[in-house]
Structure formats: C-alpha cells, structure tokens
Amino acid sequence: MSAAPDPAGSAAAGSRPTGLAGDGNRIVANGRRLTWRDLPAVELPSPAAVLAASAVDALTAARQHATRGVELVLSTASRVDPGLRDDLTDAGFTVVALDRGEVTVLDKGRQRAPEPDRLWLLTSGSTGRPKRVGHTLDSLTTVRTVQEPRTWLCPYAPGTYAWWQVVTLSLTQPGQDLVVVEPGDLDDWPRIAGEHGVTAASGTPTFWRQAIHRDGQALARVPLRQLTLGGEPVDQAILDQLRQLFPAARISWIYASSEVGASIVVHDGRAGFPAAWLDRAAPDRPTISVEGDELIIRSPYHGAGLSGPVRTGDRVEIVDGRVHIVGRLNSDEINVGGSKVSAGLVRHVLTAHPGVAWARVTSRRAPIVGRMVVAEVVPAPAADHAPPDEAALVQWCRERLPDYGVPRRIRFLDEIPVKETLKSDV
C-alpha cells in the first residue's frame, strides 16, 4: 500500500503521454533549483535497471523514459541486493548506475528485445524479495483533472509507486512544482519544505508521526494546503493530530499499491471509508469488495497481467459503517489461547492515548496460552503530555480491549523507527 496524490478524474491505463506539459515546472533537489527541461540527456540501454545515486539522477531517468520510452526499472542501490540484481539480469535488464548524469554499466542483461514504454515497479518486499509489477507512464498518471498550482514535497524512495505518483503529476501538469528530499535530509524536511514554500505533501502515517514527534511546531510552520497519507493503516489519532496542526488544509488518505494503483481516496477526515462504497461499480473506477476479512480490488489502474479481482492480502474490519484497513492478513491476527485479536486494533488503541506518538504491536511465545500480545511504544513529547508508564498504558488498554488483547509487555523507544520506504513495518 502506498501514499499518493488524489487520483480524482483519472482514466484507465493506455499509451505513454506524448507531451511533457510539466517540463517548465520548478524542481528543487540536492540543493539545486532547475526545471524538468534542465535535466541532462543521458543514453540508457533498453531494457535498463537504473540505480540512481541521487534525486536528480532519478528524475533524469524518469524524464528519459517519458521522452524516449526506454523500458525501465528505477531504484536506489540500497533496495537492490545481489540476488535481485541477478534476477534483473536474468530477465534481460542491463543494470546501470546513474551518478551525476554519468551512466556506468554494472551487469549486462540477457539479450532480448525491449518492451517500449514499459515501466517496472519493485514492490516494497515486506513479504519477501521485491517483485516486479509492470506499468506504463500513462497507467501511473492517475491525476488528470486540472489542478490548482502546488509545490509538492516528494520524500519517497525513487521508483516506488508513491514516488511515481508525485513525479508523474509534476511531469504532466503545469504548475505542479517539486521539492525532493534526499534520505539523509528526511529528519529536517519541515525546514526544507518551509524554505521552498511546499504547499502539498504526501507521506506514510509513520512519516507524519515522526515529523510531529521531532518538532511539531516546525511542521506547523510549513504552509501546507494538502496533506496525504497512505502506505500503512491510517488511524483516527494521526488524522486528528494533523487536523489540529493544519485546520484549514485538506487532509486525505489513500489506498494505493503497485498491483492495483490508487484505488481508495477519503477526504472526510475520518479513518476508514464508508461501507456503502463496497461493491459499487462505476466506469473507470475501482470496484472494492471484502471477502471474509480480506480487501479485494478490481481496478483499471492495475499492473500488467493483473486484470480482474486482485486479492490484496490486507485485512479489514467493518466498524460503525466504516471499513478500516488494519494490517496484513499474515501478520495482523494474534491467537492468544484460542481467542483472536487484531494487532491493528491494539495499535489503534495505543496510539489513541494522548501520551503515545507511535506504537507497534506483535506477539511472543507464552506458557499455557501459546502467544501473548506485546508492544513497542514511542511516547509523545513531554511538553505536550506527561509520558505514560507501562502500568498506565496497560490500564488504558484494559478499559478498551478484551483481556486477551491487552499487551503483557510494553517496551519504550526514544525514536520512531522508519525504513527507506517511510514505513515502520507495523
């Protein structure tokens, strides 16, 4: 699941756009100010797996694909281990490093004819080695209605679905400027965003929680008019915290993935989406269903070879007429002595505590019952709330959960852990 801009007015996948309407849009990256048309022209093999050394290099590869149709996998070196490199070369991709506009061949791929205009996205790999999902620039360009001028923050790892969502918006729409943050600068992104007048930002709940935890006042000074969340389960606590900081902004959460594209968009400030949306068919719109407790999506924005209903592997719960996406099927449910509890539900209870900035809920072996619920917690800044101790959080959970769902061990962390994907594997 990925965060993305609002795909209202999108159309089904088709051929690559012929013009780059956003070529004059401003880009700020690596301390440089330039436009799309200022990026260097580079000679890339096709098919190519490009390992970009910087944000500018990643954008350069994206524009080369847009203008020349090079069959492309785009990533950073840190996301491609030796085993994945072997998989790519076996599939015919020549692996190249792109550093300051210089192309260096690392591994030559098995010879085959390229597939023009094809983009391949690497999944996050949270359930194993990353897989390739085929798209085109057109199938990734989900925002087609005319947008008000905005300056977008792009904090994502190059080549991910969410990265392409922000990048295609800037490539194809005039007035959509881009401020790209390198991984080493992520802790300082509110200052960078404020300095360059960022008005729209997309990130995971962990990304937003980390910014609030580090310096909520600095975050509040960013002139944001559009905030988007996705990539992880979105609970009411983070929506309410962002609404308090940005009372006049539109706050959206989006369900999107490499496999099914941007499929669910919610703007009403509430966690979950209306159950009335289930099984609702409309032209060029995804159809959302639930089978058992799994989210099923039939989408016009799906990856290559994924037509029809796609089992997402995401677990849902329907509460008070809202459908909540709570976690992965293979990791969300905890069996405590025969009674089952959702790790997502326990996490939501913990993060609803005013003294908790972030929580992760898992299980560990226990005598008699087999497994017991455990948690990791990052307290909210002491200036806002007195940090809770373990006993206080256990009591909070006892008042809101059945006994088998109450964490038996709570470990406190100083910082919110975050991966390159901006997720924390909750």
List the main descriptive attributes of the protein structure presented here.
eight-stranded mixed beta sheet; Long-chain-fatty-acid--CoA ligase; 10 helices; GMP Synthetase, Chain A, domain 3; six-stranded mixed beta sheet; 426 residues; AMP-bd_C_sf
Summarize the structure in words.
The chain is α/β, with parallel strands linked by helices. It has a domain of 84 residues: GMP Synthetase, Chain A, domain 3 (2-Layer Sandwich). The chain has ten helices and 24 strands. Strands 2-1-10-9-11-12-13-14 form an eight-stranded mixed beta sheet, with helices on both faces. A hairpin with a 2-residue loop joins strand 18 and strand 19. Helix 6 runs parallel beside helix 7. Keywords: Ligase. This is Long-chain-fatty-acid--CoA ligase.
First-last Cα distance: 12 Å
CATH topology of the domain at 329-412: GMP Synthetase, Chain A, domain 3
Q: In what order do the strands lie side by side in the largest sheet?
A: 2-1-10-9-11-12-13-14
Strand content: 25-35%
**CA-based gyration radius:** 22 Å
Provide the CATH architecture of the domain at 329-412.
Answer: 2-Layer Sandwich
- Report the top-level CATH class of the domain at 329-412: Alpha Beta
> Count of DSSP helices?
10
- Which percent bin holds the helix content? 10-25%
Shape: globular
Low-confidence stretches: 6-18
User: By helix and strand content, what is the structural category?
Assistant: alpha/beta
Tell how many strands the DSSP assignment holds.
Answer: 24
What would CATH call the homologous superfamily of the domain at 329-412? Answer: ANL, C-terminal domain
